[in-house]
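Re: the pair you flagged

First of the two:
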Amino acid sequence: MNVFTQNAGPALPYLLIAFVAAAIISFLLTPLVRRVAIRYDAVDHPHERRVNDRPVPRGGGVAVAIAFISVAIALLGLDAVIGFAPVPTNVDLVDLIGLFVGGALATAFGVIDDYLDLRARWQFAGQLGLALFAIATGYVVVFVANPIGSGPRDSLLYLPTPIAIGFSVLWIAGMINSINFIDGLDGLSSGIGLIAAITLGLISLTPQVPQPYIAVLCFVLAGSLFGFLRWNFHPATIFAGTSGVMFLGYTLAVLSILGTAKVAVAMLVLGVPIIDAFWIIVRRLVQGRSPFSPDRGHLHHRLLDVGMSHRQTVGLIYGICIALAVLAMFLSGLTQVYAFIGVFMASGFILFILARGSFGPNVPETNGET
């Protein structure tokens, strides 16, 4: 059985070009962005709620966004001439506007926060605005895998329009928040995003989801993150910042919807940040606190607390994400959902054990990011 669709062959050289070109541009731009961030004091200073022990500039997401948008537009323009990747029938210009303009808006909003340190409520308002913009440009999850379907004809559950819109808002804003919550250690969010982008790209080359056109976009994103990781991995010389969080969360969310929806794949591959964000919100609400109030309750903080080093913690979480990515490659849509539920329950139990009673009403806030 062929692992990849027949249309993948002509696109493979361009996928390599996409990855390498985006990685080079991101790699070269990041030091420039770092200098600008230092000049305007967009810097994370050591603080009792921070992991870093020295000032580190933020805003590296700008380099990632510029690399992605510029290389992707160039390659899609080349594809319009050469035709190395067939355009899916359900992808049009408005979809691409939603992807690129939305990504640029997400980055711009993040830059404002990197400079001004906006309150959480304004960040959330920005996330909702981005979600509504995406929906206005056609990014709506209109169906999900039917957990009680008994055959091919009823394997999909089509959502009524109001529910589809509500689910799409939750998916896009939730994805941004998930990336934001996991962005607490050097290279963690960008590495997870790299794994997710490659997985979505490979899935888009399979006979089940034969869309090399979408794979090109995914590999451009992966290359952009790979080039940035050189500067972001521990010890980081620059953080992705809110600009990186907003851009990465938004772009992964809409790429998982673009073409043939791959939301179940993204849920499984990004299970660690999604589940971590869910349990963090639950714990904070149980404690009577705002779900956006910072503390040291994230999975990566718990792993540090049990004695793992910075790099060991990041490496372990990378390994879990890669294992989930492999599962996503070999499971069908419905079994991906079941696998996510299994991971959700297991992760909840592990986090509860690691928390050692932190669901109580009074938990001191120590170092760590939101």
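Second of the two:
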Amino acid sequence: MHPINSVKGAITTGVVLAIVIGIVLALWAGNPVTIHLVRADRWLHILSGVMWIGLLYYFNVVQTPGLAAAAADKGGPGGAGVTKYIAPRALLWFRWAAVFTWLTGAGYLLTYYGTANAIVSAFTLQSGYRTIGVGAWLGTIMLFNVWVLIWPNQKKILGIVPATDEQKAAARKTAGMASRINFILSIPMIMCMGGQAHGLPF
């Protein structure tokens, strides 16, 4: 089977292509080809963050309004296909991308600044670490929302765990609110993550 015909094959192909391009660019610049673990961690942090936030935006901008429109369309096909086949798969990638993003971010703080105190300085918003610290706090709150509020309630909504209609309605409200809060928090979080190295826009 052709590698780009599957998700696993496409991811593998993308990683191999990135490695080849990285090696070519290093050689072209006259640099030795060595693995920089801190830079690799940052790359993985950005990659997993794109997956996490991309799915968060998909849920908030596409899926939730789309399912609401499907529910309102009495003669339409409904949203059963999305809730049965798409949402569980999207939520799988979503919640584990959130974990991987947080762990690689913590790893970057622990290694890039050369001391384990950097992560403490970031989370206590010390001078020189305030921008990344605010971003780290926002990301931590968002990770909490994913695992404590969104995922347990989505399991009820999707029928993964038994729930009454009343419990499902309450779960929709809680999961939807937590997801919308994460959507809002992601905007300043991304600003702070980029702002640590490149400066804030204000």
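The chain has a mean pLDDT of 93.

-B.
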